[in-house]
Amino acid sequence: MVTTGFKKKADHILLALGLSLMLGIMILGQDFRVALGTAMGVFMDPLVNLVGASNFHLILFIMAAITALYASLIQKYTIDWELMRNTQEAMRVFQKEYREAQIANNTAVMKKLEEQRTKMMSDQMEMSKQQFKPMAYISIISLPLFMWAYHFISGHAGASLNFPFWGHQVLTDTAFGPIQYWIFWYFITSLAVSQLIRKALDVGGV
Fold it and tell me: Taking the chain, what is the end-to-end CA distance rounded to the nearest angstrom?
């Protein structure tokens, strides 16, 4: 039987791990990113051998599916969607009533609404905390996967893919700004798969 104390300890460990990965990538730089990607290669390199390095776009699609499923499950069971819906609806009503009171210069109503603001700010703070925790959990899987893809594609500059409208493109070439084609492909497939999974799991709907 899992105790409440064990759950809290595990929660703190996972949050610390997720935050450490995010900070490590930002602060420790290239050496940390390469080390993280290399470590993830223990799990991903056999997949490359199975699918083939020339089909890297399929590997990216599998990565997108893994991260989308993982993220959706984390969000489904860590976020109070009812609280989020109620908080956002209450905020919409509050803003509408406050604007109307300002236009009418109704100081009595404005004062009453100001008294409600404190509770609403508390609910919004709780909502923000609930949104932050899944980000830390999700980074435990998504960041190592992304760093592995970055490390792998850097050594396979010839990988390419046919894009609609853009035609045949080398995945390490720049699509726009600093975004390379492989990153663009990853995020597009991740967004599409995520929408399907979230719909199937009934996640969100705020």
Answer: 34
